[in-house]
Amino acid sequence: MAALLRAQFDLIETARPFLERLWSEWDETSVLCIYNPSRRNASVVEVIHTTHPLRYAMEIGADLGLAWGSLGKAILAELDEDVVEAVLADPGIGPLSGRANPPLAELRDELDGIKRTGCALYDDSRYDISGVAAAIFGRNRSVIGSIGLTMPSRRFALRDRDGMISTVRLAATELSSLIALKI
User: Which CATH architecture is the domain 2-182 placed in?
Assistant: First the structure.
């Protein structure tokens, strides 16, 4: 247990400069999540909140379903097919919408696109939340978690999406390289 806690704190310490860089460039909430294979979900382990008064508050310790939002889907897209099917077989519901997990067939194209581009986008103007996230990896491309930005949809619509995607993807790639050296 102590080794797991130490590893988590090392990850947070290693990721902090990348979160700070995302935050300083975009002034949006930057978030680090770790993947929990046994529970097939992700947990928020570090957050730097935007300075804007209108924001979606992410809390450290919050659990996230993998079938929802950019942070979860960035992880889900990189997992083995049997794990994806198990995640979607669980009768989870969307944290904002209350809807059941989407069917695998509906998600397959989206997950393929995330894997191809290396970045997940989420934009739900009905609940005024958007996000951009990318998976982070350890050695042998084992999924460790995700890093990304969350913001209200209204601001996301005004942003340079391609620039934001590139910045998040670069942070995830650089962080993954650094983690792989430490593990």
Answer: 2-Layer Sandwich (3.30)
